[in-house]
Design goal:
The chain is an alpha+beta fold. It contains two helices and nine strands, in the order ααβββββββββ. The strands form three sheets. The chain has a four-stranded mixed sheet, with no helix packed on it. Mean pLDDT is 82; it is low at 26-30.
């Protein structure tokens, strides 16, 4: 019987039987692997591919610190909604990354500027216009702004050979008015509705309401009692002053003036 069995064994029969045994044995081994018995040592290089990963299998605890670098991020992968509050600091910004076109209108306010941040070199040519100046700043060119006041002093006098002799002087405004102001000459100590007097430190701030020129005489000598000082040639650029002698000899008038633009 043994002889007959040997006579019927062929190479192909043996190989087929071994293959069937190996296949059945492999299934049995795979089905019978204990839990957690397959570790990194049992995995071939590149054995775990992307399609073998279960959806949601790779969570943040599974990612090593520093594993996700910029080269691993897809285009537009990180949006504003993915950024935590306060994570983008000044140290994280690349040089020249913030330019004028990337700044939203109105985001840079005065409280965001350091002291002395805006220097003359930072100002564009023609960027500071008259409209940008405070009302406290006088005009650099053009007419005096409405409600602004110019102030100064005057001194008129001469030596008269006869009573009634005249001496002339003038007041020129540093900045012209839009129109000529109404001129009022006030004797020493006088005031009026439009000329409230000399105020401020040492009485050296003459006052005038809008549209008025107030000429305050603070000292005078040998002037005509009726018309000690008169105004002539009243224009938006200034006025002329005329002093009239009362008697022969020196005569004079000096004081302060103020004009406020209408």
């Amino acid at each position: 019987m043994t002889t007959r069995l040997r006579n019927k064994l062929t190479y192909s029969n043996v190989i087929s039987s071994l293959a069937l045994f190996a296949a059945l044995g492999g299934v049995a081994v795979a089905a019978g692997l204990p839990k957690n018995s397959v570790g990194p040592k049992q995995l071939k290089t590149n054995a775990v591919t992307a399609i073998k990963l279960k959806k949601g299998a790779v969570t943040s605890p599974k990612i090593a610190h520093g594993a996700v670098i910029s080269g691993k991020l897809g285009a537009n992968a990180v949006s504003s909604g993915n950024l935590g509050n306060g994570v983008v600091t000044s140290a994280k910004l690349a040089t020249s990354s913030v330019i004028a076109s990337t700044i939203k209108n109105g985001v840079i306010t005065t409280n965001k500027l350091d002291n002395e941040a805006v220097t003359t070199a930072k100002l564009g040519k023609g960027s500071v216009t008259a409209a940008k100046l405070s009302d406290e700043v006088g005009p650099m060119l053009g007419t005096l702004k409405s409600g602004q006041t110019l102030r100064g002093v005057f001194d008129v006098g001469a030596s008269a050979k006869d009573p009634g002799n005249l001496a002339r002087g003038s007041i020129s405004f540093p900045f012209p008015l839009l129109n000529a102001a109404t001129a009022t000459v006030l004797k020493k100590g006088e005031t009026s509705a439009n000329c409230s007097g000399l105020s401020g430190g040492n009485g050296q701030t003459p006052q005038a309401t809008a549209g008025n020129l107030c000429v305050y005489i603070t000292e005078e000598g040998n002037l005509d009692a009726t018309t000690p000082l008169a105004v002539e040639n009243n224009t938006r650029l200034g006025v002329g002053l005329v002093a009239k002698a009362d008697e022969e000899g020196d005569y004079f008038a000096f004081g302060q003036w103020a004009v406020t633009a209408p």
